[in-house]
Amino acid sequence: MNNDYKKTKTLIEKHLSTYFNSENNKHEKNFNDIINYSLLAGGKRLRPVLLYKTTQALGGNLDFALELACALEMIHTYSLIHDDLPAMDNDDYRRGNLTSHKVYGDAMAILAGDALLNRAYEIVLNTIVNSNGDKGVIKASELISKSSGFKGMIIGQVVDINTENEDISSDELKYIIDNKTGKLLVASIVSAGYLSDLSDQDIKLLNKAAYHIGFSFQLIDDYLDVAGDSNIIGKSIGKDNIIGKNTYVKYNGIEQTKTDAINHLIIAKDNLKKIEGYNLDFLFDIIEYLKNREK
Ligand code: GRG
Q1: Cβ-contact 148, 187 below 8 angstroms
Q2: Maximum CA extent, the chain
Q3: What pTM was estimated for this model as a whole?
């Protein structure tokens, strides 16, 4: 993570800390604390950083980018809180801390996730209004919504859970990875293209690059679950195997997973290189960071 990434991460975290502060009564105050426990707990902030920095590189509106970036991080955080619940992956640790349901109970964790998801869409709608219905903002909003919805992260999670402890085809595995993880990462990058009114041809190239970044991200996640350090990752490792998850490592082994992850990043870079007229160096730096990430 270079200084530029760290600076953007700090900007996003400062902005994220402004959303859940209403203190009309003790109930609101307590619930804000529950939400902020997860929202402000750290994490790489990869999705919002990608959205913000790609918009900056492509010359789009950074005020809108910052709002949509925070909405994306709220959607991501809600998905992590719900994913950690006993009814789903049943995890005790996330981002180095006890999970939301471990501290506040299942009901509050579910509601915190719900509140984050709904707040994200308030932000998206406000951004559309504040932009006077700018076409790029609408397209970015639609992409974020689709990518996190039924035909995106949610169906990915559905298939991931429904196929635990059974073998699946490589197409099904790809379907889980594309939807559960890939689409939100694609939305982070391609939204920036829409906010910046990029040509259709360049959007296609950005989309391809983002697809391979997203796919590789999950492969490295699977790799880290077997070869990573739980102290660095901030959650228990080896869990995928214990609960019978269908991971890339299960079908391809540890070394091949790492090799394929690197190859996907090479394809991502090849596509980015074809986008002319912009300085996308930070995206190449992020690709390097993702290749070597330990958490
Ligand atoms: C509950 C609808 C619903 C979906 C959950 C996000 C998710 C889908 C499951 C989490 C489990 C998992 C390992 C998902 C794939 C990769 C992923 C999203 C990892 C976590 O994202 P990071 O590494 O986390 O960006 P930080 O903490 O850095 O934000």
Answers
A1: yes
A2: 54
A3: 0.95
